[in-house]
Design goal:
6 strands, 434 Repressor (Amino-terminal Domain), 13 helices, two-stranded antiparallel sheet, 3 domains, Arc Repressor Mutant, subunit A, 4-stranded mixed sheet, alpha+beta, 44% helix, 13% strand, elongated, disordered C terminus
């Protein structure tokens, strides 16, 4: 077999992986010039072939043009692929992979849509159903196995993957009363302003007067909102001793939970009219009957 083929295959898979010659060379311990020589008709030392194949996420057989080589472990492939991407770009790369899976790979019944391009912007210029801002370019796929929901775009992308447990979703949801308490807390005057203040501030505890002043909300309303958000487990509070007596201070309990909550609230509140990808093939009900306080306590 001609050595030129190996070089051609290396160039092909390197470009498909989004790697430069320098990055591939660094990954396998050779110079950029060595990789260039391979791709111009040379061939690497045979002892380097396994390392090259691993970094390009293919089999050694594939480097020789034998595309039907043995199947690789996809979990290992994904880990290696993620490691080949700069750390700052890994989550963005993963969400794009999920976006492509939502179009092509979740179900055999999905339409073949090679004409759908990964958009540059997550928002349309068309107003949302709330009458403010812009509508999201959403992606949704629903099958009897679960849901994949999110937004895929160059400027902002996120996804949630929700495989359905064998016993259904309801066991893992809050009770109706707990949801009412949560949303009632968020609906209080000053609650969203306070929550946004905590999200954009340094981690730590803040006195109600500080939150009220920064959020531009009267102190009494802020105090009621902070107490309700604490009861709903979005905030936590501590008592500190001051010269004038004990003072309650508050901190965000779970930043990593609040951001997805607010993000998917916008996603869900948009309605069903505007979707870049919408494949709903689910026949099962969302829940199997539970959801009320009484049923979930049973």
């Amino acid at each position: 077999m001609k050595t030129e083929l190996i070089g051609e295959q290396i160039a092909r898979y390197r470009k498909a992986a989004g790697m430069t010659q320098e990055e591939l060379g660094r990954a396998v311990g050779v110079s950029t010039q060595a990789v260039s020589r391979w791709e111009c008709g040379g061939a690497p030392d045979v002892t380097l072939l396994p390392a090259i194949a691993d970094r390009l996420h293919v089999t050694v057989d594939a480097l020789f043009g034998r595309e039907s080589g043995p199947a690789k472990n996809m979990s290992n492939d994904l880990i290696q692929w993620m490691r080949s991407i700069p750390e700052k770009d890994r989550l963005t790369g993963l969400t794009r992979l999920l976006w492509e899976a939502a179009i092509y790979g979740i179900s055999d019944s999905l339409f073949d849509a090679p004409w759908i391009a990964y958009p540059e912007k997550a928002e349309l210029d068309k107003p949302s159903l709330f009458g403010e801002g812009k509508a999201l370019m959403r992606t949704m796929t629903g099958t009897d196995a679960g849901y994949l929901l999110g937004v895929g775009a160059e400027d902002y992308s996120y996804f949630g993957v929700f495989p359905e447990p064998e016993e259904g979703y309801e066991r893992y949801l809050l009770t109706d009363g707990e949801y009412r308490e949560l949303f009632a807390a968020l609906a209080l005057p000053g609650a969203m302003e306070a929550l946004r203040y905590f999200c954009r501030s340094r981690e730590g505890h803040y006195a109600p007067a500080v939150v009220a002043g920064a959020a531009g909300v009267p102190l009494p309303e802020t105090e009621r909102a902070l107490e309700a958000l604490t009861k709903a487990n979005l905030l936590e509070n501590e008592q500190i001793t001051m010269p004038e007596g004990p003072v309650s201070v508050y901190a965000l309990r779970n930043f990593s939970g609040v951001v997805p909550l607010l993000t998917f609230a916008r996603w869900a509140g948009q309605g069903n009219g505007l979707n870049l990808v919408g494949n709903l093939m689910r026949e099962k009900c969302f829940e199997k009957g539970a959801g009320s306080d009484e049923k979930q306590k049973a």
